[in-house]
Design goal:
With 659 residues, the chain is of the alpha/beta class. It has 20 helices and 17 strands. Strand 8 (315-318) and strand 9 form a beta hairpin. It binds alpha-D-glucopyranose.
């Protein structure tokens, strides 16, 4: 078998990245032909002799939208070189090609992503669409003009985009028990994401969070797989319910993640940095794995047609198999191919997590080979795409990766691109760009915030509040958009403060309802003369294992400052209410008796006013706990169905204000 020269060896030709200003009706070939004229010298061996005829030959099957997708995939696959196929299996971080976008052409990249915080400057809807379209033009300059897939973590709205509508993180959406609302949320998220360029989101996380010490608990809809499955209406929100919806400007390809058992690992088994549980080992039997960890994927694939799946960094170790050792999900042929693709019938494509294969045993070539042969289809290789392509080409050349596996992977990827309509409309359709962060979108997010609030205590009818009451508010988290949004917001880890993106804080929501409000972050302002004290406690932003209990000093306990604020306010003001703005239950056993009322607000996102809506009775409290609330950290993991189950508040608990 003779391989085409690796793209990286090609003569480097500076191209002028085109900035498009609107939906292109010219389609793939005209844009590509223009770029080919500048990108690859006519004398080059790569100037496709067919370009001129292809540009005008509508009979080229893969370019004919009237033909069935399967026919188009087969025709295109048959035209591709091995190097071009491997290019389609390769995803790079945009930052690695931004200085020389012609790399996209030379490497024949199938996809780019924006990791958390990888944003254009300025970070505006128009700049996003221009950036993605600029990269797209380079993909279209390849010999066969295969358009690029652009992926992004729109996990609670398009969090990377300043001005986007930021929804409550999934744990709050799980508390709503409202599948219709989560579908509405993700339709809005899809609209705002696609209108600004990316056609693919790495969401929803269908993780089942079994141990609240996990830094990604807030990315989960809850601890009960049945609840997670109910909330997978999110996938319909992203993708629509018919295959042809994927080509619409208000839909994106969804990714269910992280397959599987990411939220079910054993504390202390993580081998990544100073993480303690994230990316750890799921020690379980096949029977329990199927019931807890795999069940959401069966629903995601067979009911909702999820277009892609992202295997987890974590490992599985079978307790029902004597001598079983931990196997990384990215290396598990049993779970990626035999179970997911063959048994469950997944026809989409698998995208590896960020650099995930480098955590596999062996050298890089071994890692590549192991994961491809296990069933991985596309590889998120943020900064080493050329090396990945060369390693895989060598493995194919040596016969250690069969071409049938390459063809299967590429067929799955191309199918998604055809279904998304990218060959007909590769550039951003900006029809909906004006709806980004619109009042209508924010109203839905505000309703989601209200429905996510869980009332855990309400003695002496402390709630609902009255607008005439003189209210004292304490706690940094009352007035910090960054803290109320949490991780995956403008940056990967998120950030405290009020300047990164527009929204309303919880305090602003309260001030909109009541005339007489005193705010004192550290509760040092005089408290006399107030009818109600509100202390807002909670966490500061984190993402992934950075938020694990044990990593960087994180615990489930309240901070000393929060405990002091509760003591000061609740001892001085007759009626005292505590709000917890956090990504998971915190240990409040000692403080709860000091408060008349307690509300779990989770991570509400940009529309903090939704919290005031339930505090003042404009909307009822309807939220229910999506995770068990422990009495102490030592009780973790503690989940509904445990034999010995004695939490502070059980899974599903939640009062209405009428109590
Ligand atoms: C991260 C996360 C994954 C995310 C990906 C791209 O490490 O594990 O959820 O989609 O990288 O940002």
């Amino acid at each position: 078998m003779t391989l085409q020269p690796a793209r990286g060896a090609l003569p480097r030709t500076r191209t002028t990245g085109r900035r498009t200003t609107g939906r292109r009706t010219a389609g793939v070939l005209l844009a590509a032909a223009a770029l080919v004229a500048t990108a690859v010298p006519a004398s080059s061996a790569l100037a496709d002799p067919g370009t001129a005829t292809a540009a005008h030959d509508r009979t080229t099957a893969y370019l004919n939208p009237k033909l069935p997708v399967a026919r188009r995939v087969s025709d295109l696959l048959g035209r591709m070189t091995t190097a071009e196929k491997i290019g389609q299996m390769t995803q790079a971080e945009r930052g690695s090609v931004d200085a020389d976008p012609a790399q996209i052409t030379h490497l024949g990249l199938g996809s780019l992503l924006s990791g958390g915080g990888s944003t254009p400057k300025p970070n505006t809807p128009g700049a996003w669409a221009d950036m993605v379209d600029g990269y797209q033009a380079h993909a279209l300059a390849t010999r066969l003009h295969i358009p690029l897939l652009y992926g992004i973590d729109s996990v609670h709205g398009d969090g990377n985009l300043v001005g986007a509508t930021i929804f409550p993180h999934n744990i709050g959406m799980g508390a709503t028990r409202d599948p219709q609302l989560v579908a509405e949320e993700e339709h809005i998220t899809a609209t705002e994401t696609r209108a600004t360029g990316p056609q693919w989101v790495f969401a929803p996380c269908v993780c089942v969070a079994r141990d609240d010490r996990w830094g990604r608990t807030y990315e989960s809809f809850g601890e009960d797989p049945a609840l997670v499955r109910r909330m997978e209406s999110a996938i319909d929100g992203f993708q629509g319910t018919r295959t042809k919806d994927l080509a619409r400007p208000d839909r994106v390809l969804a990714t269910v993640k992280h397959y599987a058992g990411d939220g079910d690992t054993t504390y202390g088994t993580s081998t990544t940095g100073d993480y303690t549980i994230d990316r750890g080992v799921t020690r379980t039997s096949h029977r329990r794995f199927d019931a807890v960890d795999l069940a959401p994927y069966v629903t995601a694939v067979q009911v909702h047609g999820a277009g892609s799946v992202m295997p987890s960094y974590s490992s599985v170790q079978w307790t029902d198999v004597p001598g079983s050792q931990p196997v990384k999900m990215s290396a598990s042929k049993e779970l990626l191919t035999d179970v997911l693709k063959r048994k469950i019938g997944f026809e989409g494509f698998l995208i590896s997590d960020w650099d995930a294969i480098t955590q596999l045993p062996g050298d890089f070539a071994t890692q590549v080979r192991t994961s491809v042969n296990a069933g991985m289809d596309m590889f998120m290789q943020p900064y080493d795409a050329p090396q990945f392509e060369q390693a895989l080409a060598a493995e194919v050349q040596a016969g250690r990766v069969p071409m049938s596996r390459i063809d299967d992977a590429v067929s799955r990827i191309l199918r998604a691109k055809f279904q998304l309509g990218l060959f007909e409309h590769p550039f951003t359709d900006r029809t909906n760009i004006g709806t980004v962060g619109s009042p209508a979108h924010r109203a839905v997010a505000r309703r989601a915030v209200a429905e996510s609030q869980v009332l855990l205590k309400n003695d002496h009818h402390a709630l609902p509040l009255k607008p005439s009451q003189r209210i004292y508010v304490a706690g940094v988290n009352a007035s910090d958009l960054g803290n109320q949004a949490g991780g995956w917001t403008v940056t990967w880890q998120g950030q405290s403060g009020n300047t990164a993106f527009p929204g309303t804080t919880i305090l602003q929501g309260i001030q909109n309802e009541a005339k007489n409000v005193t705010y004192s972050a550290d509760a040092t302002a005089p408290m006399s003369g107030h009818d109600v004290g509100i202390v807002v406690v909670g966490e500061t932003p984190y993402a992934e294992g950075v938020g694990d209990v044990g990593t960087g000093g994180h615990t489930l306990g309240l901070s000393a400052t929060d405990r002091a604020n509760i003591d000061r306010v609740c001892s001085a003001i007759k009626t005292c209410l505590v709000l917890d703005v956090a990504g998971r239950p915190q240990i409040i056993t000692g403080e709860l008796p000091k408060a008349d009322a307690f509300v779990m607000s989770w991570l509400p996102g940009s529309e903090g006013a939704g919290v005031a809506d339930v505090l003042f009775g404009k909307r009822p409290f309807t939220g229910k706990l999506p995770v068990t609330w422990p009495r102490s950290e030592a009780q973790e993991p503690i989940n509904v169905g445990d034999v010995h189950y004695d939490p502070l508040f059980p899974y599903g608990y939640g009062l209405t204000a009428k109590h």
